């Protein structure tokens, strides 16, 4: 955890406080993680329940912020489109490996695809282990073990071995480990957005629940912004906390009132 003081957060507290209300009239840029932040965690990636009001809420916030809103997710952009519909908001998918600044842009891939060998070995391993699930993405493959937690060690062992042998990055998340070609993370995604005309000079806010969001928290802090942890308190670079998805929705809706 960093110890710099260049951060918009209260000092000297152990428990993270709730963030102040979001003020859309201030020159801020809003970055939102998806799973665990905008939708509750479900037994499988496709089993999530998206609140029917969520797409409209994101659209309205993006308009109110003059386009300074981006979803920054580990999911592929196409997968997010499938769950949210095609919104005219900015997206970074695949942990920053995919980039789409607006709904009318094509998705830009910022890294080479995963070697075929890695995908084949993961698929073969998963097919021989009940409860494991492989989720292929444009730049990586995730192994989910939520339905087979006892297989965690075996999954991590395979991921480490493939990562070392093929020079891949290994990212851990909630009951998931993912292999992807190196070079991007959620921090690089936020930095890329902040370099764009529409985001430049804004103060960034990032909301996220998982360890992969910590890279973004650090970058946001470097820009003098606000990092908000969603869910249970844990060691984090965030300075504020919202207790869960419901509270995130209420906090976002309040900004439009
Ligand atoms: O960066 P995020 O938007 O938070 O995405 C992180 C990963 O989320 C998904 O997996 C997680 O959510 C699933 C549905 O709730 C859950 O079943 C799984 O155990 C979680 O790890 C998604 O499937 C991954 O591709 C994302 O990387």
From TrEMBL:
Alphabetical list of Gene3D superfamilies matching this protein: HAD superfamily/HAD-like, Trehalose-6-phosphate phosphatase related protein, domain 2
A GO molecular-function annotation: metal ion binding
Pfam families documented for this protein: Trehalose_PPase
Domain of life of the source: Bacteria
EC number(s) from the headed UniProt entry: 3.1.3.12
Record field: catalytic activity: alpha,alpha-trehalose 6-phosphate + H2O = alpha,alpha-trehalose + phosphate
UniProt KW keywords: Hydrolase, Magnesium, Metal-binding
Names of the cofactor(s): Mg(2+)
Recorded metabolic or biological pathway in which this protein acts: Glycan biosynthesis; trehalose biosynthesis
UniProt entry tagged with the keyword Hydrolase: yes
Entry-linked InterPro entries: HAD-like_sf, HAD-SF_hydro_IIB, HAD_sf, OTSB-like, Trehalose_PPase
The protein, known as: Trehalose 6-phosphate phosphatase
Organism: Novosphingobium marinum
Lineage: Bacteria, Pseudomonadati, Pseudomonadota, Alphaproteobacteria, Sphingomonadales
């Amino acid at each position: 955890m960093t110890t710099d003081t260049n951060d918009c957060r209260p000092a000297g507290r152990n428990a993270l406080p709730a963030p102040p209300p979001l003020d859309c009239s201030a020159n801020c840029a809003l970055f939102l993680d998806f799973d665990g932040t905008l939708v509750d965690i479900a037994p499988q990636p496709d089993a999530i329940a998206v609140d029917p009001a969520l797409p409209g809420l994101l659209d309205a916030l993006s308009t109110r912020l003059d386009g300074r809103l981006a979803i920054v997710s580990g999911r592929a952009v196409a997968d997010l489109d499938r769950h949210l519909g095609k919104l005219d908001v900015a997206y970074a998918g695949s942990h920053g490996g995919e980039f789409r600044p607006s709904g009318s842009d094509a998705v830009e891939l910022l890294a080479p695809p995963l070697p075929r060998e890695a995908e084949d070995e993961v698929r073969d391993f998963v097919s021989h282990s009940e409860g494991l699930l492989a989720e292929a993405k444009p730049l990586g493959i995730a192994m989910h073990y939520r339905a087979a937690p006892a297989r965690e060690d075996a999954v991590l062992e395979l991921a480490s071995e493939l990562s070392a042998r093929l020079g891949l990055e290994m990212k851990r998340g909630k009951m998931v480990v993912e292999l992807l070609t190196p070079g991007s993370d959620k921090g690089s995604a936020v930095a890329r957005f902040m370099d764009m005309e529409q985001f430049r000079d804004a103060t960034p806010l990032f909301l996220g629940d998982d360890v992969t969001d910590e890279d973004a928290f650090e970058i946001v802090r470097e820009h003098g912004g606000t990092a908000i942890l969603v869910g249970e308190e844990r060691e984090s670079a965030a300075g504020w906390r919202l207790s869960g998805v419901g509270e995130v929705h209420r906090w976002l809706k309040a900004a439009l009132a």
